[in-house]
Design goal:
The complex is a heterodimer of chains A (251) and B (74). Chain A has a single domain (14-244), classed as Rossmann fold. Helix content of chain A is 40%, strand content 17%. Chain A has eight helices and seven strands, in the order βαβαβαβαβαβαααβ. In chain A, strands 3-2-1-4-5-6-7 form a seven-stranded parallel β-sheet, with helices on both faces. The relative contact order of chain A is 0.16. With 74 residues, chain B is mostly helical. Chain B has helices spanning 2-10, 34-48, 54-59, 63-73. Classes of the chains: A alpha/beta (251), B mainly alpha (74).
């Protein structure tokens, strides 16, 4: 028998990934499966969740359709889950809204998905004791929530700032159960979320010029950091954040 | 009382209900913390519809005393 030393492995771990139907969530589900985890994928869109499952490696993965902006769905989701070793909250929405155009409903829409949903999911998982000791919760946030201020992104940025704060409060309160909470703050990643925004090719070119590594990130580059935060290699890391932005925030 | 002790135990991360009885001085339990205290206050509110004033809660030393305090507010 060959002994494989790999503290980054997710072998034997059961991981829940939200927003697994696209973008960073999908990439995270795929990377977790490649690292040996059993993955439970959730999102609203069933066909796209099924597609994610076909892209994953190994057997025994599952999907559960849920709208996490609905607390009843969160409760139903958590009831269907087995004991977990990790969660990645990757479901998120963006909105390009200059402050003068913001409506009350816009605030609710962005905060419901980016802030309230991960908060209530964390609450329910902790309360129902679905997280085993030494499990890890990873919140996908953004450099927009970390002081990287951009025009028309106030709703998105503020929702991510709130999420960053919540992760620290949660880290403190669940530490007695040896559960860890961390965030990942990516710069712009090439996902549907970005494509949905009304940026011209020229705008994008100008924006990319602000990145020292001169490109946007790829979903798997965020997913691989999530794997690290889920793995035993990060056992003493809690209440902190990993910035993955091609150097965007150093300039 | 039995039900109350069960609910009380549930507020801890890990607590064998067999370790608790009406005479237990819960503030002396190693696992007792300010977070558990807040969870107990919330539990009493949700299960019994009683809002425990912190200064009265502070006087309760044993589970029996806490239970009696809740009963007196019902």
């Amino acid at each position: 028998m060959i002994f494989m030393y790999n503290p980054f492995s997710l072998e034997g771990k059961t991981i829940l990934v939200t927003g697994a139907s696209s973008g960073i969530g999908r990439a995270t589900a795929i990377e977790c499966s490649r690292m040996g985890a059993t993955v439970f994928c959730t999102a609203r869109n069933e066909p796209r969740l099924r597609e994610t499952l076909t892209m994953m490696e190994g057997e025994g993965h599952h999907f559960i359709v849920a709208d996490l902006t609905n607390e009843e769905d969160i409760i139903a989701l958590v009831e269907q889950l087995p004991q977990l070793d990790g969660v990645v909250c990757a479901a998120g929405v963006s909105a390009l809204k200059p402050i003068q155009t913001v409506k009350e409903q816009d605030i609710r829409t962005v905060f419901d998905t980016n802030y309230t949903a991960p908060v209530l999911l964390t609450k329910t998982l902790v309360k129902k004791r679905k997280l085993d000791p030494e499990s890890s919760i990873v919140f996908i946030s953004s450099i927009s929530g970390n002081g990287n201020i951009a025009t028309a992104l106030s709703l998105y940025g503020c929702s991510k700032s709130a999420l960053n704060s919540f992760a620290k409060y949660a880290a403190l309160e669940v530490a007695s159960r040896k559960i860890r909470c961390n965030t990942i703050c990516p710069g712009r990643i090439e996902t549907g979320l970005l494509q949905n925004q009304t940026m011209s090719a020229e705008d994008i070119e100008k924006d990319i010029a602000k990145y020292p590594l001169h490109r946007y990130g790829r979903p798997e580059e965020v997913a691989q950091a999530a794997v690290y935060l889920l793995s035993d290699a990060s056992k003493w890391i809690t209440g902190t954040s990993i910035t993955i932005d091609g150097g965007r925030t150093i300039v | 009382m039995e039900k109350f002790i069960e609910l009380f135990a549930e507020q801890f991360d890990e607590m064998d209900v067999a370790r608790l009885n009406p005479e237990t001085r819960f503030r002396e339990l190693e696992e007792w913390s300010s977070l558990v205290a807040l969870l107990v206050i919330t539990m009493v509110d949700e299960e019994y519809g009683v809002v425990l004033p912190p200064e009265e809660m502070r006087k309760a030393q044993t589970i029996q005393e806490l239970f009696d305090l809740v009963q007196s507010k019902l």
